[in-house]
Amino acid sequence: MPTVLEVIKSTTAYFEKHGVESPRLNAEHLAAHALGKKKRLDLYLEFDRALTEQELAPLRGLVRDRARGKPLQHLLGTVEFHGREFRSDARALVPRPETEQLVELVLQSKVESREFKILDVGTGSGVIAITLALELPQAVVTAIDISADALALAQSNAASLGANVTFVGSDLLPGEPAAFDLIVANLPYIPSGDIPGLSREVRHDPLAALDGGGDGLDLLRRLIESGVTRLVPGGKMFLELGHDQAGRVAELFSAHGYRDVCAHKDYAGIERFVSASR
Ligand SMILES: C[S@@+](CC[C@H](N)C(=O)[O-])C[C@H]1O[C@@H](n2cnc3c(N)ncnc32)[C@H](O)[C@@H]1O
User: Considering the domain boundaries, does residue 39 fall inside one?
Assistant: First the structure.
């Protein structure tokens, strides 16, 4: 029977042939998952161990699905975000590393120690709202989404991580006239015409998590407009955007009378976020 290392090598070669990005990393993650390891690096202690047929069988299905484009996070069932493990499945967008930077921007901004009302719009799996609730215990966090599936996933993540977040089903801002100190959102921003050209992995994300309308800015336009009456004076909004949208989003904020409009780069040097104060 093949050893752990041989299986990793043959899986890596198979993934390379099928156009899977980071083939070795994917092979190691799936092997660790199939063998019940807590961490991928635990495999390194067992490279020379021969695997039994019983151990190989579940791995074969995972490898086949990954080669066909199913996202790694759906196969593992989890994703790490800001040092915590969240459940991830087809009910909501797979959280992206850039969004961890959005959360870091929020945490670096002046967040006061008094009761502080935060709204996460389009919460998906809940990563933003739950991380902020856990990092800022003085904050009162509400999270909304139009998708009942996403809200169910977010609620189960909040329960398993012990986060106190109020989840509300709503089309953008909820009806009652609560005022928020901070609104944060990673809403869909991909122009509808670009959806068919997305990678097969991204097309596993729900369409409602991707499609931002004709120019990609339909939802951001509505949110910026309605935020004017839903942020307290001096309250802030932080948005995540597509790679070429910062200029247009900054103009939208300015046109609606926001102050301190500021674009922020991600680690790849792309202006990925815009913040503004009311
Ligand atoms: C790009 S995903 C982001 C999910 C999560 N915030 C994250 O960063 O991983 C966008 C989310 O917005 C939700 N959404 C789309 N249209 C919406 C609307 N009109 N009102 C509220 N949520 C909406 C989608 O269901 C999806 O969960």
Answer: yes
Query: What's the predicted TM-score (pTM) here?
Result: 0.94
* Number of domains the chain is built from: 2
**The domain that contains 170 carries what CATH number?**
3.40.50.150
**What is the best residue among 142, 187, 203, 219 to mutate for testing ligand 1's pocket, by most ligand atoms within 8 Å of CB?**
187
Supply the range of the domain harboring residue 136.
93-277
Tell me the pLDDT band of 112, cut-offs 50, 70 and 90.
Answer: low
| CA 38 – ligand 1 centroid, Å | 30
Residue nearest to atom 27 of ligand 1 (CA): 124
Rounded distance from Cα 223 to ligand 1 centre (Å): 12
Whether residue 81 is contained in a domain is answered as no
Instruction: Kindly state whether residues 41 and 157 are assigned to the same domain.
Output: no
Output the pLDDT for position 239: 98
On average, the pLDDT of the chain sits at 95
3-state SS track over the chain: CCEHHHHHHHHHHHHHHCCCCCHHHHHHHHHHHHCCCCCHHHHHHHCCCECCHHHHHHHHHHHHHHHCCCCHHHHHCEEEECCEEEECCCCCCCCCHHHHHHHHHHHHCCCCCCCEEEEEECCCCCHHHHHHHHHCCCEEEEEEECCHHHHHHHHHHHHHHCCCEEEEECCCCCCCCCCEEEEEECCCCECHHHHHHCCCCHHHCCHHHCECCCCCCHHHHHHHHHHHHHEEEEEEEEEECCCCCHHHHHHHHHHCCCEEEEEEECCCCCEEEEEEEC
Residues 240, 118, single domain; the answer is yes
